[in-house]
Amino acid sequence: MPKDVRHRFDNKKQIWKSAKTSNLKEALLIRDQVLADYKLQFIAIRSGGTNKVYAKDAPSNPKIEECQKKDKKKVLIFIVAYNAEKTLEDVLNRIPASLQKDFNTEILVIDDASKDNTFHIGLSHKRKSISKFPFNVLKNPINQGYGEIKK
Questions:
Q1: Which of 29, 49, 135, 139 has an alpha carbon 20 to 30 Å from 7's alpha carbon atom?
Q2: Does the structure show a pLDDT above 60 at 55?
Q3: If you classify domain 72-150 with CATH, what class do you get?
Q4: What pLDDT, on the 0 to 100 scale, is given for residue 151?
């Protein structure tokens, strides 16, 4: 640690911080984020600032997020809908956001040639970015039934 800023860090010469991960790539990315935090602290101290500034307050690091996503298991929420305009929105809203914490979650809605506005409701849900997950809506031109769609 630079001598001119040690007084603000209890005169420590070195700083140790656990990355709390067993993944080397993720640990290296976290290390870079921690170093960026300290560099911002040094700049703030040297300029006479008293408020702490952290890199984590800046936009998130997509490399860290991508690395974390690779380590998660994938879950596909597969919704087959036929004439479900009255219930589709409620079903989509009931998917717990906490799934994203443990899994790479994606939603796939397939409208099986509905005669109502099921497909458009799915599209509007996607366009509004209401969903917490990656989201796709497809439409079958001919009703195939639940069993055929799953194949």
A1: 29
A2: no
A3: alpha beta
A4: 53
Question: Mean pLDDT across the chain, nearest whole number?
Answer: 75
Backbone angles phi, psi at 2, to 5 degrees: -60, 140
Angle 58-62-64 from CA coordinates, rounded to 5°: 100
Whether the per-residue pLDDT at 123 is higher than 80: the answer is yes
Burial class (CB in 10 A: 0-12, 13-18, 19+), 105: buried
Task: Enumerate the CATH 3.90.550.10 domain ranges in the chain, comma separated.
Answer: 72-150
Residue where the block lists tokens 């010469």: 13
Extract the tokens encoding 109: 């809605």
Quick count: other Cβ atoms within 10 Å of Cβ 12? 10
Query: Which DSSP letter does residue 57 get?
Result: G
